[in-house]
Amino acid sequence: MFSLLYGFWRYLFQKDEYYILILGLDNAGKTTFLEQTKISMNPNYRGLNLMKISCTVGLNIGKIDNNGVILNFWDLGGQSELQCLWDKYYAESHAIIYVVDSSDQQRLDESKRAFEKMIENESLKGTPLLFVANKQDVSCMPITRIMDEFRLETIISAAQRDFHFVAVSALKGDGIKESIDWIIETVKKNSVFKPPINVTE
């Protein structure tokens, strides 16, 4: 009887909590992506002025609660001198969101190098990856070129991880729901390999 009541209590009050890293170069739109996520998923959240967001120095944190799943986001600074801090968060993360500024052709190689260094880290082996081609609301590179430059087809076939590519305008909110829906579905699916943290409200 106790186990039945305890199970019912857990069902009502306990939620699964996951940690999601948002990575990419500075000015890729990581913080705007996070802010749009909080705005769209938290009805009472007023948010920052998206036109006045500056580059992250250090860490931005966000949280959403969606259908019994809590996602904690760590938006890390993307400047070259801050990228050395990324791997301090890898072991705790349940998924990675990598954001690319698809309008910035000049920094594409730089972003690719940061991406490759990240993806080769052993601590991220098997960790689900959402690749976000941001700034689709302005003149930008074709999606096929970005995929080719980052060798995404090779990475998908070689790595044993869940992977999804999405074209986004974080400023306008296009593609945000698709991104978060995929993250929630995927971390839940992978919870047998990397269990969530259980929290009780």
UniProtKB/TrEMBL annotation:
Signal peptide start and end residues: none
Keywords, ordered alphabetically: GTP-binding, Magnesium, Metal-binding, Nucleotide-binding
GO biological process, any: Golgi to plasma membrane protein transport
Ligand binding (Mg(2+)): T31, T56
One CC-aspect GO term: Golgi apparatus
An MF annotation (GO) of this entry: GTP binding
Binding positions (GTP): G24, L25, D26, N27, A28, G29, K30, T31, G78, N134, K135, Q136, D137
SUPFAM superfamilies, A to Z: P-loop containing nucleoside triphosphate hydrolases
Coiled-coil boundaries: none
PANTHER family: ADP-RIBOSYLATION FACTOR-RELATED PROTEIN 1
Subunit relationships: Interacts with SYS1.
Family according to the record: Belongs to the small GTPase superfamily. Arf family.
Function: Trans-Golgi-associated GTPase that regulates protein sorting. Controls the targeting of ARL1 and its effector to the trans-Golgi. Required for the lipidation of chylomicrons in the intestine and required for VLDL lipidation in the liver.
Name of the molecule in the record: ADP-ribosylation factor-like protein 6
